[in-house]
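Appendix B. One record, verbatim.
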Amino acid sequence: MIFDGPVPVERQKSSQRNYIIFLLFNGFAYMCLGETVILLIAIRLGSPDVVVSALGAMMFLSFLLLPLGKEVASKVGAARSQSFFWVARNVAGLCVALAVPVSLYASRLVAEIMILAGGFFFYGFRAAGVIFSQPLLGGITSPSERAAFLSRSNSVSGFTSCIALVLVAVTCQLTESVWALMAIVLCGSCMGVTSSRFILGIDESSVLRESAKKPLLEEIRLALGEEVVRRQVAGSFCTNLAIILLTPTSLITVKRGFGVSDGNAVIFSIAQWVAALGGSWAASKATRKLGPRRVAILTYLAILSIVPVWFLLTTFAGSVPKIALFIPFLIAGASFFALNNSMTHYFLQTVEEKKRVAVSLLIYTVSGAGSGLVALGITSFSFGALERLFGTPSPETYRIYFLLAGLILIWGLPVLSSLRPLPVEKRMLRKGDFFRFLW
């Protein structure tokens, strides 16, 4: 329900309950539909590396649909908008699942198109749906309880996500059939559609719908005139590109370069997820002393270290212990949230509150979609050339790929270094600043 004023206190509690139930279903659904399972389906169906790596770029390329979310929210409100896009998102997941029989009984090319389209809209509809999710949550919580509610929400989502990943890993250990992966995606899609019902039970203020109607183009144009914003867009572009070029390809490498089973591949993803949580915590502590700019530079160096690690692992592929293959996944996981958190921290301390909506949309669409497009070009050229040179993928194929990626990504260091250091008094992000941004 949309209220003309603030959401009444008695309605806030019921809305909070609906949101927690939504997270219970959605956390499980996402891990059954997320990038790990989609990548495994593409690999299992024999898709070339260029297609599999392109799926990794879809998470960022899909930010092109962000303006669509704003447009729909201006018509029906934030809750109905997110519910609509959540249904659409999980229908896109079904497109990925249906690619399995299409590939086996009709055309692999059509199946690959279905997987890529399904991946794009799966992430794109999510981006469009969550554009006003944080303001929506702000309307159903009081300032004094927001920290506790956010913590409880993250715990619920993380718990169900971990359960789903473990179940996926067990299923893949029991069978290597692609039909099992298809069943996992179907299960996740059904759970995701079910979760959308509970979003409709979240009340909101009409302020959200009215704010969605405000034009942003002029604000974005003015923001681009500020040097600090342009440098942040460039910095975010570099960090996104590093994540796209290095993270999904690590999963491809253990599967095709080292012959790891689907079940073990999911275990690598679990390790990456746990490392991401640890990296987020460590980065928040380090930022207080070093500042977000330095943390961003250090974590960018960390994710670049994946290049020499894979160089060594692929060089000694015949004798390297399997446990050593966890190293690049742990690095990628720890770097992912640390990079995002440090850049968000820097953004909050350098952009005025009244400009944050416009600037955040600018950063997401330009640096997110832009890095996705550039990554698609790089991976298409690289894997296309390597396939012509070496034919069947081997450890040597991926060794050359990671070296090429490293040479491209090294130029991100001077870009991140160009960010102006924050004064000591701005390195600590006050909770009030953080929650005003979120809500």
